[in-house]
């Protein structure tokens, strides 16, 4: 995901969640942001992207990923601990279309994730979201059906790092924990660059219109 003030896109229908997220917006956001202006910005950002088209395009990518994953999971080496790394915004959750809290799952990605987790694959989520809303994010992912083996969010110092480098470092950490990352799935080049995954799959972001 290309980092933006993602918080303008979450929990529009929940006053408590909206207040938490507004507090979490990084300093790069220009000027003060309120819940009402956040919702307006989200609607504007997604206005040029048709939901049905987005879902169809996501399904096309996941249809390419699933046969590989089925075969790779079946071919797991003895003792191998397999993992998939996912981005969150407009990859595993419908950030630009889910104007509620919890946000809905992106169904094509969820179906792939559930197949993997049902076959013993660990799911890790690496996001540019700030750490202050880690608990909210973890709850959302679990609530809609993802088994979260690990959630990586940005600490204060990470906010000053290049997003692609930050995400690569988290995958390195997952490998150091003894996992083989058989796939890395996201909707931006910053999610997928840097290696440390056997395969990468890019969901559509329509030239950055989706975060």
Automatic annotation (TrEMBL):
Q: Which residues form a coiled coil?
A: none
Indicate the secretion signal residues. Answer: 1-29
UniProt keywords, alphabetically? Hydrolase, Signal
Respond yes or no to whether keyword Signal is given for this record.
yes
Molecular function in Gene Ontology: hydrolase activity
Task: Report the InterPro entries cross-referenced here.
Answer: Acid_phosphat_B-like, HAD-like_sf, HAD_sf
Q: What PANTHER family does UniProt report for this protein, alphabetically?
A: ACID PHOSPHATASE-LIKE PROTEIN
Name of this chain's protein: Hydrolase
């Amino acid at each position: 995901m290309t980092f933006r003030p993602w918080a303008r896109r979450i929990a529009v229908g929940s006053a408590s969640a909206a207040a938490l997220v507004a507090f979490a917006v990084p300093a790069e956001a220009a000027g003060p942001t309120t819940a009402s202006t956040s919702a307006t910005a989200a609607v504007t950002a997604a206005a040029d992207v048709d939901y049905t088209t987005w879902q169809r395009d996501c399904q096309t990518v996941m249809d390419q990923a699933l046969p590989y994953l089925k075969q790779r999971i079946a071919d797991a080496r003895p003792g191998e601990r397999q993992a998939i790394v996912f981005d969150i915004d407009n990859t595993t959750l419908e950030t630009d279309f889910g104007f509620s809290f919890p946000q809905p799952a992106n169904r094509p990605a969820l179906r792939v994730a559930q197949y993997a987790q049902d076959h013993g694959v660990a799911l890790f989520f690496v996001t540019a979201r700030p750490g202050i809303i880690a608990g909210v994010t973890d709850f959302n992912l679990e609530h809609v059906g993802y088994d979260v083996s690990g959630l990586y969010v940005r600490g204060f110092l990470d906010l000053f790092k290049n997003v692609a480098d930050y995400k690569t470092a988290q995958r390195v950490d997952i490998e150091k924990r003894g996992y083989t990352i058989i796939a890395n799935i996201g909707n931006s080049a910053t999610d997928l660059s840097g290696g440390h995954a056997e395969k990468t799959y890019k969901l559509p972001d329509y030239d950055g219109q989706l975060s």
